[in-house]
């Protein structure tokens, strides 16, 4: 949108309706004390009865999702992207886990293949759990994964492709010497020993992997070495350990160059000046540390160590877990995938017949799995990972918003907010960092502030009885400004028994270098994925508005602060449906 929009205090502007209707009109009104300038498309009836959640309208149109049942794992090889994922072929709840397998040439459209790894041997008979792919010398792929053996111990197994000339790598074989690594050793819990990382080569020419574990009651990324990627020896010290928690799931370890949005291949020489990132899954979210990989001691040394894990940096501040990154040699970037679960009930998942989607991102520091693919990389000050949707998602864009109104079913929205005055910002309280979700609840979009809240209301019903708010507030600390980004789901649906939190994260705002705060939000039916401040805070959310089933939803830009906010840039696109998990005959 070329024209400048000015959001004066307590302004509310409707600009998108996420449905297809013919009738339109113009309306100006005031509701709940908030001045509105809105363009009405259609006053579709609101059903007095909450409709069934069993609807294809909640199933995402361009996020990765299996055709049915439960999902939970990536590799680029010879021109093909491979997505492996934990999959229950017998139902939409946890259990009977095998490795599903889908392939793509563009990260958007996916072909579904037969499962790559199934429960067929004593070392994985009770489940084929998370693992990682590594491209070995001679351009040969290998996957090391966690299996649950006959005693339900967690052990590490390996598979190789049966035929590397098959572009889809349909069949994988298990050597007779599985399991490669067993949970033996003092202080090791055999039920908390899983999720091997992608391998890397150290200065001694030996392969290394890390495995998440509970060691002497604390969390650890255990380090293992091998000459041939088959015979492994545990190093006498972990890659890193912490007494702040008891177990790390799905560890990830990779190198990044500060300020460069290109990725680094761990199997190649790491350039001078590179940092390393150690990511772990705990507390129902993915956290990470930035530091250096000390080659002499063979350990990861974080730049900053915080005793309180609530203060650790997060990959995503919303519904996002068990992420896994990989190096995309095609484009020289690092991509991260993550899993986002349903936030309805287990009985709803059974009734629908499916649960969970994958998100993938790319990052300027590095790194997400079933939401969209993200690119990931490290910012120039070496403190924070930045993430952004992979550029391939833009191939799904259709009509661009030209006027205040456009009819959309799925949307990609980019909006920039320009602050006219920031000196009056409310003071920042560091204690908010200990429970950001609580602060987002207390300072929600209805609470007036000096600079904010301002942002978007998405998937809203005509009467605003249902809506999801994605918004910012700016605070002033002693030496810098802090921006709070919230994605508030508490009024997202009239359905009972849903998990509807108010997610939130903070990022620093440099007034001397920045004059706008950007927000990009991808709406895909029940998925709302938001990137604030150029990817400094990412929030993935799942919502189930009744309005989406009964007719359609609306989107608004708003400012509920006392200061004026300008919108110098507003762009939005309707999104085509991707071909996800089309079965390959």
From TrEMBL:
One of its GO terms (molecular function) is hydrolase activity, hydrolyzing O-glycosyl compounds. Residues 436-574 form the Glycosyl hydrolase family 32 C-terminal domain. It holds the Pfam family Glyco_hydro_32C. CDD domains: GH32_Fruct1-like. The lineage of its organism: Eukaryota, Viridiplantae, Streptophyta, Embryophyta, Tracheophyta. It comes from Dichanthelium oligosanthes. GO terms for biological process: carbohydrate metabolic process. Keywords: Glycoprotein, Glycosidase, Hydrolase, Signal. Belongs to the glycosyl hydrolase 32 family. It comes from the Eukaryota. Residues 63-359 form the Glycosyl hydrolase family 32 N-terminal domain. Residues 1-21 form the signal peptide. This is Beta-fructofuranosidase, insoluble isoenzyme 4.
